[in-house]
Design a protein that fits this description.
alpha/beta; two-stranded parallel ribbon; 11 helices; about 35% helix; disordered C terminus
Length: about 300
């Protein structure tokens, strides 16, 4: 019996196949036989249509992960930690279930650095998480490094800032008139387009050196948060958000939003460009918004 060509391709497991994962699948479908982990059985048809074999399991239920052992030599870990606690139990469950993997790319967050006072941050800077959300990511990185050292896995960690795309812009926030910080109180924010992030993940599988190497998956934007909101508002002909002093703003926004408005850093992407040889489709937010204004992207999302 002649087997389909896909059976002879290396196997790749994608864990956490949300928006970025779905953008990643078509980039790798010709190179791998792809398995996509999902906890939602109703997503199986969507994943099959995208070229992946769905695996229904739940990172919060270790017993459901037994099928993963030995399933794939290549792994992309996109799943976020659970929403509470100081350790990432989901990553710990995944590592226990996987066994040895030849290559693993983990998508972490730039929040592991905490507040850097607007300084330029390179990958060698020590982590200093300021909230439990970032602490869970630091825990995941450490667990994966320990597993890589013990089992010979070639691990690459991508630290990612705010992900945006046409469907992931702060339009609702602008329409609601949620305020931003006044310029003298504002923080630097960092960005990456979801399409570029998917390409970076794909390139990391083949070009990153492993060894737990950290890369900043970030574009060239050097923009403060309020200026970002202003630029999006202008592109979609919306009213710019009001600006408030920090003392007034903290009384009217959620604690989660306030935490993002309390950390300022500028991520350096030299290592990304040098080692992965990435050419960004959207080198900065302005380039992406210019395409919106010129009509080369789709119309405003519903």
């Amino acid at each position: 019996m002649i087997q389909p060509a896909s059976f002879h391709r290396p196997r790749l497991l994608v864990v956490g196949c949300g928006d970025v994962g779905m953008r990643l699948l078509p980039l790798l479908a010709g190179r791998f036989r792809i398995f996509a982990l999902t906890s939602q059985r109703e997503r199986c048809a969507e994943l099959r249509a995208a070229g992946a074999v769905p695996i229904v399991a739940d990172l919060d239920r270790p017993a459901s992960l037994r099928r993963l052992r030995g399933l794939a030599d290549w792994v992309v870990h996109l799943a976020p930690p659970q929403p509470e606690g100081g350790v990432d139990r989901r990553t710990r469950h995944l590592v226990a279930a996987l066994g040895k993997a030849a290559r693993l790319v983990y998508v972490s967050t730039s929040g592991v650095y905490g507040d850097c006072g607007g300084e330029l941050v390179r990958e060698t800077r020590p982590v200093a998480p300021r909230n439990a959300r970032a602490q869970r990511r630091v825990d995941a990185e450490r667990v994966l490094r320990a597993r890589a050292l013990a089992g010979g896995t070639r691990l690459t960690i991508l630290r990612v800032p705010g992900i945006y795309a046409l469907e992931r812009l702060p339009l609702k926030r602008l329409e609601q008139g949620t305020p931003a910080l006044r310029p003298e109180d504002d923080v630097y924010t960092n960005h990456i387009h979801a399409d570029d992030l998917a390409r970076i993940v794909a390139l990391a599988l083949f070009r990153a050196p492993g060894g737990g190497r950290v890369l900043h998956a970030v574009d060239d934007t050097r923009m403060k948060m309020g200026d970002y909101f202003d630029a999006v508002a202008d592109a979609f002909k919306l009213t710019r958000p009001p600006r408030l002093p920090r003392a007034e703003l903290q009384a009217v926004v959620t604690p989660t939003l306030l935490s993002f408005m309390s950390e300022s850093r500028r991520l350096d992407n030299t290592r990304l460009k040098r080692e992965l040889r990435v050419r960004l489709r959207y080198p900065d937010v302005a380039a992406a918004l210019a395409q919106v204004q010129s009509g080369t992207q789709n119309e405003r999302p519903a």
